[in-house]
Amino acid sequence: MNQPENIDSFYKADWITFGIRKRLHLSPLAATILWYLLYNTILLIAAIYDDIVFSRGNRIGLLNDWGWWIITLGWSAGIYIFLWFPDGIKNTIVSLLQNKVVGSSSLYPGRDEKEVLDIYIRDFYRSYSNRFWYILAFVITIPIMPSVVQSQREFVMWHTANAFSFWIVMFLYMLIFFIGITVIFRTIVVSIWFNKLFRDFDVDVKPLHPDQAGGLASLSRFSMTIVYAIVLTAITLVMGDISEALIKSKSYIDVVRQPHILVSYLYYGGAASLAFFAPLFVAHIAMKKAKNGFIAKISDQFDVEIDRIPPLLAQDNVSLKESLSKLEELQQLHAIALKFPVWPYNAGYLARFFGAILSPLFISLISVAIEQFFR
Prior knowledge:
The protein is an all-alpha fold. The protein has helices spanning 15-23, 28-49, 66-98, 113-128, 132-153, 163-200, 217-247, 252-256, 259-277, 281-312, 317-337, 347-374, and strands spanning 102-105, 201-203. It is elongated. The mean pLDDT is 80.
C-alpha cells in the first residue's frame, strides 16, 4: 500500500508545530534547544540587570541554581514530544505500510485500500487536532497555578528578587503544565487510533522480519521515544528534589516523603508503563491472533494426516512413510510457529524500557545512600 497523501496533515494540528516545523523547517531537537536557550537568555539578562547572576547574601543566584537548569531540561522533553508527534505518527504508519503489515479494511465496501486509509488518516487527524484538548488542558492548568505561585514565593532565590523574573518563571510553569497535559491527551488519542488501525484493518504479521517484532518494531520506537521523554522529566524532578533539600537545608528523605512527591513517583511509573504498552496492546492481540490462527491450521492438517494413518497400516510402506514424513514436517512447522513473536517489540526494546524507567529510582536511592553515609 502506498503512503497516504494526507499523512503530513498532523503538522497542521496547531500553529506552533506548523510554524516551527513547516515554516521555519526546524527539527524537534533544534527547536527545543533554541527554546531552552531563548527563555534562559531572557532570565539571564534580567538577573544581570538585578545583579543576581551569582549568589549574594542568602539569595541564590541564577548560575548557582543548578536545579533550575536541570529541571528545565525536563520541561524541554515535553516540548520536544509536542513538536515530534507529527514525525512519530507519520514514521510509524509509513513503516507499517512499507513492511506490508497493514492490509485492506472491510469498513468501507467497494472502496480501494488507499481511499480507506486516507479516510482513517483524516478521522485520526480530526481527533488529534480537536481544540477541545487545548481547552481542557487550559482548564486543568489554571487551578494548579495559585499553589505553584505561593510555593515559589517561599524561595529566597534569583527569580523572587524582582517581579519580572518571577512572572516569567510562572509563565513558564503554566506553559509547561499546559503542554504537558496536552501531550498526555495526545498520547491517549494516538494510542486509541493506532489500536483502531489494528482493529479495523487486516494485519499480516511478518514472523521472520529482521526487526524481530513481526515487522511492527516502529510501534516500539514510537512508544520508547515518549518513555525517554517521561524518564528525562522524572530524572530532572529527582534532581529538583535534591536541589530543594539543599536550598531549604532539609533531608532529601523528608522532601521525598511529601505527599505530592510520592504521588508523582506513582504517577510516573503508571504514565511510563501506559506510554509504552498502550500503543502496543491491540497490535499484541492481532499478532497473537495471527499466530494462533496459523497454529490452528497446522493442527487441523495434522489431524487430517493422523486420520489417514490407520488404513495405511495394512497397505504398502511407501504411503505410510509419506504420511509419517508429513506428520514430522507438520510437527517441525508447529515448533517454529510457537516461536512467532506476539508483541511488537524485541528483547532489546524491552531491556531499554526497564533500564530507562528504573533510572530515576536508582538516582533517588543513590541520593538517599549518600545522605545516610555522610550523616
